[in-house]
Amino acid sequence: MEYIRVGTSGLKITTITFGTALTIGTQSSEREYAEAMIDTAWKLGIRSFDTSNNYGDGKAERLLGMCLKKYPRHEYVIATKGSWQIGNTVYDKGLSRKHIIWALENSLDRLDMEYVDLYYAHRYDSEVPMDEIVRTFNWLIDTGKIRYWATSEWPLDALEECVAYCQTYGYEKPICEQFLYSYAVDKAEKNGVKEFCESHGMGTLGFSPLCQGFLTGKYRDGIPSDSRIAKSSKINYDKTIHFYEQNKQRIDYFLAVCEDYHVEPASAALQWCLRKQVYPVLGASTPEQLKANIRCMDQRVPEEIWTLLEREWRTAG
Question: What is the pTM of this model?
Fold first, then answer.
């Protein structure tokens, strides 16, 4: 597993970040399951872990913190997020100083850690002035509660305002933006967010790099019993079933090209993201699935595939 530098910051993470959305604390709240997943990730060389205060209503943070206790704290990077709606009052969401400081303190309590390496503003909040957002996250850096801050799924105009404010007044800007990204979904390309980040020294991480499993080919012969769609009621998440109808042309073309060249689809899907310098936040339902996906990183993908995929990707886009 290689390490990459996050934007122009000094932080390095592994090329693959292990993501806990919809698995640890959601698919299962058992510590044994969480330990099996985290220990497998560690053995595979992953040293970057991603969670959020809304994953599994906080259970993901708690389990992740427990499972990482056995490992030296300085040898891994942990990221969590705040601002998502996590309660029923107006104080349970957003990027106000009141909410963010409270949310982080609760996240640190669940993780049982003194600090997190990376703290995300988890969606933009247009009701809060940019100076309040920037100053709050910088204050958290100054107090040692976080080492760096970042954004997730922010619109281009908000990122432009944020970076301009930081540059004008001498504040630390977010070191990266995390967005939905895969061969099938290129929203961050179309809306200018990826290009803006690249030109302003911000790293880019992409969640759902396998397009919720559709780019692995697992759904070609129906819905597997262990798939996210089959477990949609259990994990309280039904968006996966719509991904195919929304991205059918690209998914079908991608799988056809991989089949013609006898390449494992997951290999091409993950390596596509790396070629675009969007580093995958990768989840998995089982240790075996995680191992298989990481093995895919070593499979050689013929250059002709990238040419064919790029041509269709640009045409369809």
Answer: 0.93
